[in-house]
Amino acid sequence: MRYLFILLMLMAGTAHAQFVEDFTDGDYTNNPTWSGDLSEFKISTSTAIPSNLRPGLQLDNTLADTSYMVADYVATLTDSMEWIFWAKMSFNPSGSNFSRVYLVSDQADLTGPLNGYYVALCYEGADLIHLVRQDGTTHTPIITGTVADISNTTNEVRVRVKRDNAGNWSLYSDTLGTENFTLEGTANDVTYTSTSYLGVYCQYTVSNATKMYFDAFYAGPIQVDTVPPVVNSVEASSVFLVDIYFDEFVDETTAETVTNYSIDGGIGSPSMAELDPVDFTLVHLTLSTPVTDATLYNLMVSGVEDLAGNASVLDTIPFAYYVPTAFDIVINEIMADPSPAVLLPEREYVEIYNTTSLPINLENYTLRIGSSDKTIGNIVIGAGEYLIFCDDGSEAELTPYGDVYAFSSFSITNGGVDISLLSPAGAVLSFAKFQDDWYQDNFKDEGGWSVEQIDPYNPCAGKENWRASVDAKGGTPGQQNSVLSANGDNTPPQLLRANLVNDSTIRLWFSEPMDSAKVLNPFYYSIDNGISIFGLPYGYAPEYTSVQISLDQPITAGTIYTITVIDTMTDCVGNILELNSSARFAISDSIEEGDLVINEILSNPTTGVSDFVEIVNTSSKILDLRFLTIATLDDSLQLDGQNYIAPYGYLMFPGEYLAITEDRAALLNYYYSEAPNNVYEVEDIPAYNNDDGIVVLAMAAGNIIDQVEYNVDMHDPLLNTTDGVSLERINYNRPSNDETNWHSAASTVGYATPAYLNSQYSEAESGDEITLSPEIFSPDNDGYNDVLNIAYSFSHTGLICTMQIFDERGRFVTKLLDSESVGTEGVVTWDGTTEDGAKAAIGMYIIFTEVYSADGYSNKIKSVTVLGGKM
Predict the structure, then answer these.
(1) 559 and 616 belong to one structural domain
(2) Does residue 11 lie within any of the structural domains?
């Protein structure tokens, strides 16, 4: 509450007035009543004002001017008294941009002649704090400060001025804005011994017309400190050094008395205690017995006095020496779009969670949101506890939900942003590459709901480990996530590929985020052909899915090199990469027309799956896709929608396939692939029409490498729907735009073959063939020839196949394929059971295979097998 009260005390016949103003009532027309240029000030909740002081007084003009506000303050200065206030100037002051706080004035108009004293925040261009006496229009500094530097782009200071009954003045400052004051200087002056007014005075240019702030005014009898100091936090910087942070300046003698401190666990009192020479709230303890790493201790503190002589009472504070490693603390919840609010405050926040059993001090750690780095101050996150990050305008509203650390500014892009927590050395402790599809809820991603991590012990899984909160409030800041569930990662990582950056630098790509300490160790790799690693690998933080390695010499054209992992590497949760995993690299050849061909097109995917285009290297060359693009043609047959496929490079060796899609995970979740590592996710591919369109491979310069004009009539006419069915090229050596060279993928492979041999692939017309293996089989589960494998090879594509089993008397036994779309090659297995699941009798059986296609082709093939067994 903002208030003014006049306390009349009869002390030696002298009247003393006490003035208090903090603007929390939002009104400067009552209690007390201010006058002056009121229209050029406002009561503000700007984030430029610390949250514990809001609201405060802010200059609010649009023109260059001189403005003042004044309040009645009638007092005599015959006894000791003091003045305290907080001020901030968000600019570097100068002779034309400065402020004053009048402590004593006999006139209400602070812009005219008057008699009194004021504190000058910059005096005649000198960026120091001054105490100035004003005699009419003459200004005389009586104290020139020596401590506070107010030449910065932002200058925040709390000022204290004392005067005793003999006219001895003392000027103090605290540039942290707290009340740990440092003496700036002293002087004696008894020129004026009474006052009628107190006020603020601002002179400014237009660029600074809103950048001055004031709050927390006090004038009256000297306030006596009766509160003992309290320990804010304890931090062990090594096994022998422990730092104690008090909430106020402490006395040097008692702070350096070692018997005022004791640590349990057999450590005892320190061998030395030293008050920091700069920060008088900080005491450094040196231990004679080291603490044990990652062990919780208790520090007992008592008898340490503040500068007023108040001694601390016994306080016990837990601490540990522990250097956090990656994912000890994890980013656990993100409120990016709080509007419209559900039941939480309409405020953005990021929550972190301490997964360890030890408290961790986050001082000098960095929260990185996009490209904005925010340094964290002295705050401890307890074992198994949460901490909420927000801006200081949100602190008061979010504090009821848990521990909060506020920054002066804080913003999360609704659509997604990279968020990281970094150690003081810059190591990644946690990261979240937040995207708006993490909500996995089309309603909640419109605002008001947070995204929560499902399993805090699987912190690198991205979208698969996050979803929208299901808590009725819209989120769970400061508490256990509402979606908390086991969602572990048991999949080992893979080394996907290597590509050439230049002739002496390669870049490796892994399938998932890796343990940085291992992938950045040069001794974990070996390269053949006489090549060694030069220096340390460079990791691409925060995920470390890729590292760059310098070679000790340039590689030679025409030689294929192999890099091999020769020591144990793990992903970020400890799954082990297969030892001796390797990747090839070489100097590539130029890409020419026909070297790469379009081999498969999915233009009409099912819901939740993206289009894909498969290409194959049909040449004998090693090709780098760095400058290759995927595109289409516009109505004038010019390249359109051109997008790079692999702007950082991708080496394709002869005969290799590559399936290109915008959502790799969704594609592999729906379709089987024999080579999932060759399914490659790109940022964008053109939006191909479902039924017809043109797919183009072109170099960035515009020369076309291959193009295919597709249409729905190229699909099998016997299909009921082409949704989710890819078009496969029958033979990649035949022309791309030969419509008879394309056909629907077979149903037996799930209607697509991303990144491996097409189901409809056929070299040439060579007849139809059924091969049985073994010739005699015995389904007795003895592990020897228990099943019959029926391999088929057809010369025609687009076939519908029915395969039935008959006994030697022509009686129907079972049906293995029933009018199913098949590719040119495949295998069907018979386990020796009949249609009703019974075991077939020993004897001879006929496999009758019938195929036909929409173009009128048909064929019937009979094959004979023997089902044997023990008599």
Answers:
(1) no
(2) no
List the structure tokens of 474.
């819209």
What is 68-94 written as a DSSP string? EEEEEEEEE-SS-EEEEEEEEESS--B
575 vs 571: CA distance, rounded Å: 5
Give the C-alpha separation, 585 to 622, whole Å. 9
Residue 837: give its domain's CATH number: 2.60.40.2550
Per residue in 611-627, pLDDT (tens digit) is 999 999 999 999 999 99
What is the Cα–Cα distance from 524 to 577, expressed in whole angstroms? 12
Residue 714's CB is within 10 A of a number of other CB atoms, namely 19
Closest CA to 560 of 654, 676, 659, 679: 654
Evaluate if residue 692 carries a pLDDT over 90. Answer: yes
- Residues 161-179 have a mean pLDDT of 91
- Indicate the helix (H) or strand (E) that contains 126: strand 126-136
Biggest CA pair distance of the chain: 133
Angle 234-240-244 (CA atoms, 0-180°, nearest 5)? 20
- Strands ordered across the beta sheet of 692-699: 639-644, 628-633, 692-699, 704-711
Six token digits for residue 370: 């996009």
Query: Do 106 and 197 contact (CB within 8 A), yes or no?
Result: yes
Strand order in the sheet with 858-867: 776-777, 858-867, 843-853, 799-807, 812-822
Of 708, 774, 788, 768, the residue nearest 741 (C-alpha): 708
The enclosing H or E element of 36 equals strand 34-36
Alpha-carbon span 311 to 300, nearest angstrom: 14
Distance (Å) of CA 595 to CA 87, 741, 742, 751 = 71, 18, 19, 26
Quickly state the pLDDT bin for 6 (edges 50, 70, 90). very low
Distance CA 49, CA 810 (A): 94
Q: What confidence score (pLDDT) does residue 392 get? A: 82
Considering the entire predicted model, what is its pTM? 0.66
Tell me which H or E stretch contains 669: helix 664-670
- State how far the Cα of 405 lies from the Cα of 51, in Å rounded to an integer: 11
Peptide bond just before 340 cis, omega within 30 deg = yes
Name the strand (E) or helix (H) holding 131: strand 126-136
C-alpha distances (whole Å) from 824 to each of 321, 658, 713, 770, 859 are 66, 21, 20, 12, 13
- Span 57-108, pLDDT tens digits: 999 999 999 999 999 999 998 788 999 999 999 999 999 999 999 999 999 9
- Do 187 and 127 lie in one domain? The reply is yes
Does residue 314 fall inside a structural domain? yes
Same domain, 80 and 206: yes
DSSP letters, 801-861, are EEEEEEETT--EEEEEEEEEEE-SEEEEEE-SB-TTSPBPPSEEEEEEEEEEETTS-EEEE
| Mode of pairing for the β-strands spanning 386-391 and 404-407 | parallel
Do 173 and 209 belong to one domain?
A: yes
Q: What is the length of the chain? A: 871
Residues 161 and 240 in one domain: no
Does 578 share its domain with 692?
Answer: no
Please give the single-letter amino acid code of residue 316: T
**Encoding tokens for residue 362?**
């986050």
Is the CA virtual torsion 310, 311, 314, 315 positive or negative? positive
Structural domain harbouring 677: 596-749
Cα–Cα distance between 368 and 353 in angstroms, integer? 16
Q: 59 vs 42, 66, 655, CA distance in Å?
A: 6, 10, 72
Question: What is the dihedral sign for C-alpha 478, 481, 486, 487?
Answer: negative
Given a cut of 80, whether residue 181 has pLDDT beyond it is: yes
The verdict on residue 760 lying in a domain is: no
Tally of domains within the chain = 6
CB 520 within 8 A of CB 549: no
In this structure, what CATH number is given to the domain that contains residue 448? 2.60.40.1260
Q: Bridge-partner residues for 199, per DSSP?
A: 70, 102
